[in-house]
Amino acid sequence: MNKNVNAHKSGMTVSNNSYATPALEKGLDVIELLAHEPAGLTKSEISRRLNRTISEIFRMLVCLERRGYISQANEDRYSLTLKMFQLAQEHPPTERLITEALPIMHRVAHETQQSCHLGLIEGAQVVIMAQVNAPTSIGFYVKLGSTVDLLETASGYVMLAHLDEEHRERILGEWKRLTNKQVPADFSKHLTRILKQGYEKSPSYKVRGVLNISYPIFDGYGKATSALTVPYIQLSGKNPTPSQVSSVLHKATQEITRSIGGKTL
């Protein structure tokens, strides 16, 4: 079997120059294969799946195990260690996102006279990773670090609406498992409406009198990685309208998306 074709079937993208650095390619093939096998694979299974000889695979396994990327479990089965995760944590994407977003969030708060917060999906919840208070004596804000049920927040819906179906179903499966609940009957229509208008604007699920306005922030693949939300409250005097706040939020999320190398829609 052609090695390029076999690697593609294993879920790995191979370019026309795939063997310009053969040793590196072999090592990455092993890592990417094991990433999809939580129970691990034996040396023979890895060899067969990658269509390589035992001796080729053995050298890669020895190197990767010595460097701490893989380890052996029972029955000579190899699996990934947490080293890849640890390396990612040394420069987590969320750190860059927050660093880029905070100055823009302060500007949003100043222009709208409202607080704003940045939420990410974690398991079956939305976690508030950044928050900026309104520059007024009275206001409403969501506590930094707090969590909200995924389907009880505008940011949760707006992120789900801007994910591919496979990713969305995986998240919803975890939500169903942890909450022991089913999605609302109008769930699909709700997401379709959000996609059509590009954002979510709905009364708060938690607090009366609050109108949540939420826009997605995208990664390089055009998938929502987070959402920026203003919990809008009507104050006395002359203040920006919900439509004006929506316009400010839209521009802000596009700016954040570009700043992290994302793809604006």
Question: Summarize this, please?
Answer:
The protein is built from ten helices and nine strands. By secondary structure, the protein is α+β, with helices and mostly antiparallel strands. The strands form two sheets. It has a six-stranded antiparallel sheet, sandwiched between helices.
Q: How would a crystallographer describe the biggest sheet?
A: 6 strands, antiparallel
Care to count the β-strands? 9
What would the CATH topology of the largest domain be?
Beta-Lactamase
**The CATH top-level class label of the largest domain:** Alpha Beta
Span between N and C termini?
A: 40 Å
Mean of residue pLDDT? 86
Q: Order of helices and strands, N to C?
A: HHEHHEEHHEEEHHHEEEH
- Name the CATH homologous superfamily of the largest domain: GAF domain
Characterize the structure shown.
The structure is a single chain. The protein is an alpha+beta fold. The chain has helices spanning 3-9, 22-34, 43-50, 54-66, 83-90, 93-112, 154-161, 165-179, 187-197, 242-259; strands spanning 41-42, 70-72, 77-80, 116-122, 125-132, 147-149, 200-203, 211-218, 224-232. Helix 3 (43-50) packs across helix 4 and helix 6 (93-112) packs antiparallel against helix 10 (242-259).
